[in-house]
Design goal:
Layout lengths: L8 H13 L2 E4 L5 H13 L6 E2 L18 E4 L5 H21 L5 E9 L5 E4 L9 E8 L12 E4 L6 E5 L6 E5 L5 E3 L6 E9 L5
Antiparallel strand pairs: 1-9, 2-3, 3-4, 4-11, 5-10, 6-9, 6-11, 7-8, 7-10
The structure holds N-oxalylglycine and manganese (II) ion (MN).
């Protein structure tokens, strides 16, 4: 059985329903733990020089989220097996979201993000209404044995508000999915290395 066949229809429905009802969802143990482990091994041993201070978005998304950030990022590609597997899984989610919600998601881009201790990403939004190709944001966490004391929470705010909607600890295997235009969010500083894969399902809107 290949990896996408092991995903149950229930999960796709659950995500589609949550995006319609709430605009976001948090899923624990999103991937088989062996794959999460491989991704963690991989990202935590990549040569430092492959990571760049986060330049933000691509093309017409570039100017959008200039919230101040101090993480380092590296785009995923099909060249490394575990990166390819991740992209394959996410492409299946893209297809399923399109089938359920008619979102017309055209592609998916994702980067590893490394926040060293003390790094952060101030409150920002990943997309401005009607201005960006980014429609749905995904953040997948790769940090084994993360505890409350390690900090590094993702704070999601209510739309157009200072009120906190939820705080997410970047636990190994946790996936957060939300509508890119709707929710301002922020990454708090952690006391240890913090790894994630941030990704965006995009539509084919011309700049
Ligand atoms: C981002 C982002 C959140 C996180 O990269 O745009 O908000 O928890 N990341 O890593
Ligand atoms: Mn963001």
């Amino acid at each position: 059985m290949n990896i996408t066949e092991s995903i149950t229809q229930t999960v796709y429905d659950q995500i589609a329903n949550a995006l319609v009802e709430d605009g976001y969802i948090i899923l624990e143990n999103f991937l088989p733990s062996k794959l999460t482990q491989q991704l963690y091994q991989h990202v935590s041993t990549l040569p430092k020089q492959q990571f760049k201070p986060a330049a933000i978005g691509r093309n017409n998304d570039r100017q959008l989220n200039q919230g101040i950030r101090s993480d380092q990022t590296r785009w995923l590609s099909e060249e490394t097996p575990c990166e390819q597997t991740y992209l394959t899984v996410m492409d299946e989610y893209r297809r399923q979201l399109n089938q359920n919600l008619f979102l017309g998601l055209h592609d998916y881009e994702a980067h590893f993000a490394h926040y060293s201790a003390g790094s952060y990403y101030q409150r920002h939004t990943d997309a401005f209404k009607g201005k960006s190709n980014r429609v749905v944001t995904t953040v997948f966490y790769l940090n084994p044995e993360w505890t409350q004391n390690d900090g590094g929470e993702l704070i999601i705010y209510q739309a157009d508000s200072e009120d906190v909607l939820c705080r997410i600890s970047p636990q190994f295997g946790t996936m957060v999915i939300f509508l890119s235009e709707r929710f301002p969010h922020e990454v708090l500083a952690a006391t240890r290395d913090r790894y994630s894969i941030a990704g965006w399902f995009r539509i084919d809107r011309q700049p």
